Amino acid sequence: MLGAARHLAPFNVPVVGINHGRLGFITDIPVHDATTALTDLLQGRYETEERMLLSATVWRGKEQMYAATALNDVVLNRAGRGGMIEVRVEVNDAFMYTQRADGLIVATPTGSTAYALSAAGPILHPAVSAILLVPVAPQTLSNRPIVIPADSVLNMTLNAMSRVELGASVHFDMQTWSDLTSGDRIVVRRAPHTIRFLHPAGYSFFSTLRRKLDWNRLPQSGNDGE
Q1: pLDDT tens across 83-100, in order?
Q2: Which of 27, 106, 180, 191 could form a disulfide with 17 if both were Cys (CB 3.0 to 4.6 A apart)?
Q3: In 3-state terms, what secondary structure has residue 212?
Q4: Domain around 166
């Protein structure tokens, strides 16, 4: 779904999510309901929802090394051999902070229920026009997730590390650039296109959250003496 959304967004082609697994916040139609749901969709009974994407580039000096889009998130993280990374973060050319952590997640509202959620980030409604920054295991516990306006331009510069050979990588949904070195800069902004999701009539984001996250589920009765 992530790959299809990235490729189809510039052409205004809508997407429909059919869930073959268990979680899948953007694949909201269970596979056993797919035939009924698709029949209704083809007959014009559906809800429409626009979701933003991120556009990101990797720069080494004045040379652009890589460019990609992401529906969920852009993630800067350390290499697998251990050691934190240090990142200088600027928003619209204004210094925000220097983050020392295992990684930093830049997520869309759609991505707020993906990796960002597992890193204790907040859930953003898809209609919220915002970008979410969530540190992954930050060295300073006061470094918390922060939500910034969607029209912000983020500059993340990888600072020199105590063990440069450990390196770092940046991920754009399923796409990875693994050759980051100290001084490389990742620029993230809102993509010029949105992706249009089609949902069955009566779709509710909150209903999806209740179902996927087991909200309001009554506890099982048991012989626990109460």
Answers
A1: 789 999 999 999 999 999
A2: 27
A3: helix
A4: 53-191
